[in-house]
Design brief:
The complex is a heterodimer.
Chain A: H1 10-26, H2 30-47
Helix pairs in contact in A: 1-2
Chain B: E1 2-6, H1 14-31, E2 53-58, E3 64-72, H2 78-81, E4 97-105, H3 114-129, E5 133-139, H4 140-148, E6 154-155, E7 160-162, E8 165-173, H5 176-186, E9 193-197, H6 200-206
Parallel strand pairs in B: 1-9, 4-5
Antiparallel strand pairs in B: 1-2, 2-3, 3-4, 5-8, 6-8, 7-8
Helix pairs in contact in B: 3-5
Classes of the chains: A mainly alpha, B alpha+beta.
């Protein structure tokens, strides 16, 4: 059987969350709606105006930095 | 106890209004760093009108600790004029829909019960004036806290980042059930409004 890439991308994901957000508002599930709203905003913060880039984790066993920055 | 002042130019309340505009300068410009116009250490704008209703609460030394601005939405108002694009559906409007803005609590009072009294005073005022619904553009953090104490706040669109904070347009009903829930949540037994200062011409009309 031929495997294909799943059709997931950012626009797809935002659209799906937005659909559930609309459902939550219509159903008066307001706490859920706020959290989904924040999830939609998170896409923008990750790669949009917020330009959020998570810090790269330090590999285990990496040597401690040498010297003082106040030299 | 909470004072209700009608009118940004109410001649009987110049001292109270000046204290509130100074507190707003301290909270929104000095502390939060919002880019707002100010005049000699006072913060006010075009939405401070003769019809605006203000709530103010004071400590034992008569220093203002909390304030809030409430405007009808049948004319120009902030959510419609400035943040209209954050609503996905129709923007709330009407004589009985109030916009809540400039909710200010002095920094040293953030853990006190003053904000609960302001919330109850807001509901009491709305019921007195016959307002049915509140709207505004609030921080998500603030809204989630208010939902936990009993306000059923419906989002009007997804959140947006403004001045580094996630904000969202929302609305909630003014009704006696909500007032009861707030009083229960904050441990408040009865009315918190001490005095209502109407504009002089309104006093004449009422007489």
């Amino acid at each position: 059987m031929r495997r294909t890439e799943p059709p997931y991308d950012e626009a797809w994901a935002i659209a799906r969350i937005h659909e559930v957000w609309e459902w939550a508002v219509a159903q008066n599930r307001h706490f859920v709606a706020y959290l989904l709203g924040m999830a939609i905003l998170a896409f923008d913060l990750d790669d949009g105006n917020g330009k959020f880039k998570p810090a790269k984790s330090k590999p285990a066993g990496a040597p401690a930095p040498q010297g003082s920055k106040h030299k | 106890m909470v004072h209700v002042v009608v009118g940004a130019t109410n001649p009987n309340c110049r001292g109270l209004l000046a204290a509130m505009f100074r507190q707003r300068y301290d909270v929104f410009i000095k502390e939060k760093g919002w880019k707002l116009k100010s005049y000699n250490g006072l913060e006010f704008d075009q939405y401070d009108t003769p019809d605006t209703i203000y709530l103010m609460d004071f400590d034992r030394n008569d220093d203002i600790v909390a304030s809030m601005r409430m405007n009808r939405t049948d004319g120009p108002y902030m959510l419609a004029d400035i943040f209209g694009e954050v609503c996905e559906g129709p923007i709330p409007r009407g004589v009985d829909v109030w916009e809540l803005t400039r909710g200010a609590l002095s920094k040293s009072m953030r853990k006190s019960g003053y904000w609960g009294r302001m919330q109850c005073a807001m509901l009491e005022s709305a019921l007195l004036w016959g307002a049915k619904k509140a709207t505004g553009f609030f921080t998500v953090d603030h809204i989630m806290k208010q939902m936990r104490v009993g306000l059923d706040i419906k989002p009007l669109g997804p959140p947006k980042i403004v001045d580094g904070e996630a904000n969202i347009a929302a609305e909630f009903p003014f009704n006696s059930q909500t007032l009861e829930r707030l009083r229960l949540s904050y441990g408040i037994d009865g009315p918190v409004i001490e005095q209502i200062h109407v504009m002089p011409q309104q006093t004449k009309a009422a007489a």
